[in-house]
Amino acid sequence: MAEFTKTNSENSVKKLNLNLKKHPIVIAIDGTSASGKSTNSKLVAKALGYVYVDTGAMYRTLAWHCLKKNVDVNDAKAVANACRRWKTDLCCVEKNHLRVVHLLVDGYFPEKEIRTPETAAAVSHVAAVPKVRDWMKKTQRDCIQFGHLVMEGRDIGTNVFPETDYKFYLDATLAERSARRAADGVNENLAARDRRDSERAAAPLMIALGARVINNSNLTSAETSKLLLDDLRARLPAGSFLQ
Questions:
Q1: Bridge partners of 232?
Q2: What is the torsional sign of CA 194, 33, 208, 139?
Q3: Longest Cα pair distance anywhere in the chain, in angstroms?
Q4: Does the pTM of the predicted model rise above 0.70?
Q5: Are residues 46 and 152 located together in one domain of the fold?
Q6: Which of 50, 85, 116, 205 has a 20 to 30 A CA-CA distance from 234?
Q7: How many domains does the chain have?
Q8: Phi and psi (nearest 5°) for 82?
């Protein structure tokens, strides 16, 4: 049985009065590592005809850039300086009938490089730097230039787009998430990652007020995405998504 709960009432969150013609819809999907954020965000974006934004890839891109430039990822000041100086652009590309936002560095998207073990080990360090998160927030909010978004991450509903009415938080047991990582051939200490994500001073991982919480420990991706889509189609304005 799916656990599908709702946190404190949306009435407790100050809302912005969004005009769809001027302000594209943002669906925020946050959650822990290996909770299925990426897979389900892509499925939802493709089904609705929205643009998919992987904010984790943006942090990975900065981690890769720091490693490439021999910047000590444990030196917050050095990482902040690297983030301030790098030359980046946002672009939207279509792949397998899914529109995806990429963060380019000097015109290049390091698609393979950001998925290496070395980059994975460095990303949580750069992501904890407050000035980096400020830069990322601004850049991620700029993604609305491409239209309606499904944006996944760890602080989308709490920090990047706290005003959105469409917030979700995915989670699963530690054992299940560890098994998923192992099945992908990745050996990662998820308990330690959870602590780093939830205890950092800048935009820590937490459930956003008003978010729908889905525990998908015993669900497939198809079942999880159906829960998301059923909820969204019931609440999204008519004509704002593919039928």
A1: none
A2: positive
A3: 50
A4: yes
A5: yes
A6: 205
A7: 2
A8: -65, -40
Question: Which residue range is the domain that position 231 belongs to?
Answer: 1-50+148-237
Considering the domain boundaries, does residue 243 fall inside one? no
Q: Check: CB of residue 28 under 8 Å from CB of residue 151.
A: yes
The total number of residues written for the chain in this structure: 243
What is the separation, in whole angstroms, between the first and last Cα of the chain?
27
CATH classification of the domain holding 178:
3.40.50.300
Alpha helices in the chain, H assignment, sequence order: 37-48, 55-68, 76-85, 117-127, 130-141, 174-183, 190-199, 221-235
Residue 13 and residue 214 in contact, taking contact as beta carbons nearer than 8 Å: no
Tens of pLDDT, residue by residue, the chain (243 residues): 444 554 443 443 334 334 455 689 999 999 999 999 999 999 999 999 999 999 999 999 999 999 999 999 999 999 999 999 999 999 999 999 999 999 999 999 999 999 999 999 999 999 999 999 999 999 999 999 999 999 999 999 999 999 999 999 999 999 999 999 999 888 888 999 889 889 988 899 999 999 999 999 999 999 999 999 999 999 999 999 986
Give the span between the Cα atoms of 73 and 66, in whole angstroms. Answer: 7
